[in-house]
Amino acid sequence: QKGGYPHFMLKEIHEQPEVFRKTIRPRLNNGLPDFSQESIPDDIFRECTHIQVIACGTAMYAGMVGRAIMEKELRIPVTVSIASEFRYDTPLMDQHTLVIVVSQSGETIDTLAALRLAKECGCKVLSIVNVKGSSIARESDYVLYTHAGPEIAVASTKAYMVQLAVLYLITARMALVRKKDSEEAVRAFITSLEKAPDMIEQIMALDETIRKQAEKLAFAHDAFYIGRGMDYAFSLEGALKLKEISYIHAEAYAAGELKHGTIALIEPGVPVIALATQDKIFAKTISNIREVKARDAYVILITKEGADVSDDVYDIHLEIPIEDDRFTVFPCAVILQLLAYYTAYAKGYDMDKPRNLAKSVTVE
Ligand code: F6R
């Protein structure tokens, strides 16, 4: 059942290139995104003035990456809300809001309640769901299924990956429909997206290096994940993965926020997983990393290959083989998943069934 892997989580991490391709390919037509099989009308993409993403946990963190890419490519405001907060808020949405609900199980009760609220407000709801025929899929106006297959490990990995893939596809379709980009530019975007599975496969080659770092991380009481912009969104997911399966206290911070309080927690040896994959704010992030390094933090730095960084700012430097900043989430996600997995492994925990957690949260 585990296909020769010691745990479902590792098996599911390794399935990511395949499920990514399965999710993307049926939705491409002559190199362009096409949702006609799902009967999703372009009007919902053309006519909205605001996008509201609603989800919980890892699915919400996928939504945060989605927001970054959508706002950048489409120049349309995108809000990401935690479903359990959103459902008790006074919603600011109407028929011009496109609501995107993201859920692996399709049964998360708060997400379902938020979906119902959105429909009461007259919004069209497009959901990104993994489980066919689930409640969220049934109650949405439109569904784009992720083809991750069953995700058994409680900690989500491959479902996150394909939620991202679909959010990127929606971005590309919207860019086309709203004439934000030429067909040629959208085709180039899709070509880069299609490279993600190969990139993920290349990251698997870092397995041994990541495992060695995890063996060190296993002794930590706290860990910090830092990054700016998109890197911050990846950091949030990385920290969640580590805490839920290795029980190490982990927090993600927007790197520029450190000096507003959190840097007080940095003491010699504290692990800081620093992500600096975005050219625009690279120098700023590196200067934040210098600040934690000056306090003797143990820095695991992740950058694009060939990034100009001197060796006094990190203890270990992991490079991802990619040039286009917009797609760095795919390799980064795998590094952060493996880091969490091997840390839990080193601690001897059953990461497929972490304490206090259920795969699907169907009660409030
Ligand atoms: C973390 C994790 C959870 C889920 C969250 C939402 O690894 O799996 O944070 O992402 O409970 O679940 P779904 O996507 O089923 O709505």
UniProtKB/TrEMBL annotation:
Q: What is this protein called?
A: Glutamine--fructose-6-phosphate aminotransferase [isomerizing]
The UniProt record lists the SIS domain at: 40-180, 213-354
Describe the reaction catalysed, as an equation: D-fructose 6-phosphate + L-glutamine = D-glucosamine 6-phosphate + L-glutamate
Query: Would I find Repeat among this entry's keywords?
Result: yes
Q: Name one GO cellular component term.
A: cytosol
- Please give the function described in this protein's UniProt entry: Catalyzes the first step in hexosamine metabolism, converting fructose-6P into glucosamine-6P using glutamine as a nitrogen source.
Top-level EC class: transferase
EC number(s) reported in the record: 2.6.1.16
GO molecular function of the protein, one example?
glutamine-fructose-6-phosphate transaminase (isomerizing) activity
- BP-aspect Gene Ontology terms: amino sugar biosynthetic process; carbohydrate metabolic process; fructose 6-phosphate metabolic process; protein N-linked glycosylation; UDP-N-acetylglucosamine metabolic process
Instruction: Summarize subunit and interaction data from the UniProt record for this chain.
Output: Homodimer.
Indicate the residues that form the catalytic site. Answer: K359
Q: Which keywords accompany this UniProt record?
A: Aminotransferase, Cytoplasm, Glutamine amidotransferase, Repeat, Transferase
Compartment(s) where it occurs, according to its Swiss-Prot or TrEMBL record: Cytoplasm
What range of the parent protein does this fragment cover? 242 to 605 of 605
Reply yes or no: does the keyword Cytoplasm apply: yes
